[in-house]
């Protein structure tokens, strides 16, 4: 059982009160350069997900509470939540530094800019 | 033209008015109107217009409620409230809200028939609710005035704690679940299924 805290309304509860929305921070190629999106990029955006052993960034919804979406960083081995943060926010800098796969690429310039949110 | 007539979601049940052998008081409240209101709480024009109509400011603290006269505002989300009033006054109140909110990005809908309301009364009510949800109603965090949306017996519900002593709580759930929830409450609140060794012990000398 996972115990989740909603950063929007602060409710603290069992995972059955929430809904997991899969991998977070998936960049949509068509948002940045709609004129030049290859089939392979679009395929990766739609279907290819990162499945690391360790730190995982994911989206959650406060399903039986305030109904808002938010982000969470969770360790897939220990199932421990490392952070909860808003849907328009980035994870804490130290977690961005530990990110793997496409996340590492996505966070790269954001860490440099020193942006915590 | 035929006029819509309200019919209780429990109208087909024989035990609608009283369920025998319960450890709590369980009644249906069918004379309450409800208006669903959405808007940005940070928008001063929106908050001001709503306050003018209702006579009470919208509660912005999570899981709280506010009331003035026979109007009660329940917090549902950071941008959503459920306004309750007498069923006969709902249509008029809704009309005044829509008029006051004209031109402001918001939404007010009369949802009086969307949900069924059950009233739970008595010392045992919190323990009975605990049987159906992961939320702990006996940990002291949900005092009078609290509103908690939760997953109750696998369905979506909201509980409004009216008062603590005596314990009175209103449960709001979607109309289509009313029959199921009434059956579930009838079983879990039966005297025979009372929980003895849990939470605050009532009537047992320690």
Describe what you observe in this structure.
The complex is a heterodimer of chains A (117) and B (206). Chain A has one domain (3-112): Folate-binding fold (2-Layer Sandwich). Helix content of chain A is 26%, strand content 26%. Chain A has helices at residues 29-32, 39-47, 93-98, 101-112; strands spanning 3-5, 12-14, 19-23, 55-61, 69-75, 81-86. In chain A, the strands form 2 sheets. Chain A has a 4-stranded antiparallel β-sheet with strand order 3-4-5-6, with no helix packed on it. Chain A has a two-stranded antiparallel ribbon with strand order 1-2. The mean pLDDT of chain A is 92. In chain B, the strands form 2 sheets. Chain B has a 5-stranded antiparallel β-sheet with strand order 1-7-10-9-8, covered by helices on one side. A 5-stranded antiparallel β-sheet of chain B has the order 3-4-5-2-6, with helices on one face. Chain B has 2 domains: 25-30 and 114-192, Gyrase A, domain 2; 32-110, 2-Layer Sandwich (Alpha-Beta Plaits). Chain B contains 4 helices and 10 strands, in the order E-E-H-E-E-E-H-E-E-H-E-E-E-H. In chain B, helix 1 packs antiparallel against helix 2 (87-100). By secondary structure, chain B is α+β, with helices and mostly antiparallel strands.
